[in-house]
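Input record (one chain):
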Amino acid sequence: MPSSSNSNAPVSPGSYRDDERWKLVEEILASRTFAKASRLSSFLTYICQETLEGRSDRVNEQQIGVHVFSRSPSYQAADDSIVRSQARLLRQKLDEYFEHERPNAPLRVSIPKGGYVPVFQRNLPVDTPAAMVEPPAAPPVAATLPVSIPTLVTPVSQPDEPAKKGRSVSSFAGWAVAVLLLAALVADLTLRRSPDTSSKGPAGAVWSRIFTPDREALIVSSDDALVLVQELTRSQVSLDDYLSGSYLEKLQASSGQSVVTKSNGPVPLSASWLNSHQYTSMADLSLAMRIARVPEAMPVHPETRYARDVRIDDLKSRNVILIGGIGANPWVSLFENQLNFMVNYDWKASRGYVQNKSPQKGEPASYEETGPDGVHHSYGVLAFLNGVGGTGDALLFEGSGMAGTESAADFLFNQEAFREFAQKIGGSPAHMPHFEVLLETASIGGNAPQERVIAYRVLN
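The corresponding structure, as predicted from the sequence alone:
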C-alpha cells in the first residue's frame, strides 16, 4: 500500500524548472495521454507553475478563467462553468496517465476536489522513513533562453471610465535547464519520454515539408507586450512600426496610466520598460513544445524565437511557424497576399473577427465572435503556405483569441479530423497542397465543443 505526503513547498522564482516536481509536470505534458489535450496542458502548466513559485493563493477559478481560457478579467465564474468542467476533465486525464502510463511513478500530482491547487505526493512503500518523503531542494542554476512575463499588469482607470481589473500572468525563467536530479528519476524520464505520434498520415506530409534536413526551421511565438500596447492605444500596429519600434512612442502619453506590480512596488508601464522585457503566453509555450515533439522535428531541432527578435532575413532563409494572429504576431502580415481568411482584432471595440476577402457562395464577408443567444464563437485559421519570397514553406496558427489559436493547433494534431479534411483537398501522407482552413469552436455555458471546419481554400 503506497504512502504519500504533500510536497508543495514553494521554490524561488525561476528555479521551479529545476525542481523534481516540475520535471514530473514536463513528463506529463509530453505523454501520450496529454498529446491532444492542449487546453488541459495549459491548465496544468498554469496551476503547477503558480503553486511551485509560491503563488497558490492565485490558483482560483477566476484567475484560471482569465489566464488559461482567455476570459475577460471581469467575467463571472458563477455564470461560466468552463474552469469547473475542464478541471473535471483534467482530474480524469491525470488519473488515466498514472493508471496506464506511469502506475509506478515515484511522485504524483493530483488536484483535490473543491479547489484547483495541485498536490504533489510521494508514492512510496509504507515502511519508507518520513524523512525521505520530501523532495530534495533544487540547486540554484542559471536558466537559458529567458522569456519573462510581467507578474501583474493593472490599467489605471480614466477619469470618465470605471476601473478595470488587470490580468496577471506568470513569469517564465525559460526552457528547462539540465540539472542533477535523482539518477533513477532522470533515467525513468528519459526512457519513458516519447515523441508525439500525431504526425502520422497527411499531417506528416505537412511536418515533413516544414522540418527538412536542408533548411532550418524557426518557430515564432507571439508578442503579448504588443497586445498590451494595442489595448492601451486602441490602434493596430503595422509591421513597419513594429520593426522600427515607433509604436512604443504612442505609450509615452499614457505611461502614467498603467503600472506593472513588482515585489518592490509599482513600475510605470512605459515604452522603455516594455522595450526591455519580453512577454509571451503559456499557450504559445505549450504549442511550441508540442510541435518540437513531432517525429519530423526531433532530428532537426527547430529554433523558437520571440517575435520581436526576428528579422526579415530569418524568415527568408528558413521554414517558419508563426503562432498567433496579426495583432500578436505582426509577421503574419507578410502572408496577407496568400491568405483569404484574415484574423483581425478591432481594438476600439475590443472584439476579434475574421475577414473573408473573397466570399464564396453562402459565405459571409466577416465572421464575428459575438453570436446570437449568448453563443460566443472563437475562430481559428490553420494555413500551410509558401515561405517568404516564394522559397520554403510556412505554417500559421492564428486565432481570434487563445481558444481560436488552440483550435487551429488541435485540428492539425487530430489525426482523424485532419485526414478527412486532407481527402477533400486532394492531400495524402505523401503530399499536401498548400491550403488555409477556417475553424470555429463555440462556447455555450462554459462548454467548448470540438472545432469544426466552416470554410477552406486550396492554394496550389
